[in-house]
Amino acid sequence: MEPEEVAELRTMFVFSPPPGQSWGLTFEGLEARLRERNPDTFIRVDDEGDGPVRGASMIFGITLDDEALEGFASLEPEGVSVLDCNARLAARIALWLRDNVAPADIPVMFNTEWGIEEGLERALVPDAARPRITAAFVKHIEETGGLDCQERGGRNPGSA
Fold first, then answer.
1. Is the per-residue pLDDT at 153 higher than 80?
2. Which end of the chain is more exposed for a tag (fewer CB within 10 A), N or C?
């Protein structure tokens, strides 16, 4: 599969601060940043939750390149996940998180659903422009063996 095709494969991307560090993420702060992008964006804080902590997760919508994506934020463990996302869109989200959510001195790390399944550790999002970040995400997907979409339940490019 060519890198351009790999870049279109969809999986969940997970973004977080490095171990032992914090972005100081709050639902209120993330909501404010999301509403700066789009005042009408969908946001819901899960006040019931399945666990002992109330308000433990936030569900939100984010639109990039006219494509609506669904994301989740968590305070513990701290991070933001975006579902059904390809490497190109994930690179835009990583840049947005780096520029708008993470403090300037705290980097953004990433993994994917496929990487987590394979036991891969989180990796730093390169401090670079979008094409280089996309290339890092493509390399990660190749390392996970995520090219076998049928086995992993992913979606092939161009499929509905």
1. no
2. C
Integer angstrom CA distances of residue 148 from 9, 138, 144, 154: 10, 14, 10, 8
Task: Please state whether the predicted TM-score (pTM) of the whole model is above 0.90.
Answer: no
Q: What pLDDT, on the 0 to 100 scale, is given for residue 50? A: 54
Tokens representing 110 are 């990433």
Query: For the chain, how many residues are written?
Result: 160
> CA 138 → CA 103, 144, 146, 152, distances in Å?
26, 10, 10, 16
Say how many C-beta atoms besides its own lie within 10 A of residue 48's C-beta.
Answer: 8
Instruction: Tell me which residue has tokens 């702060």.
Output: 29
Question: How far, in Å, CA of 135 to CA of 111, rounded?
Answer: 14
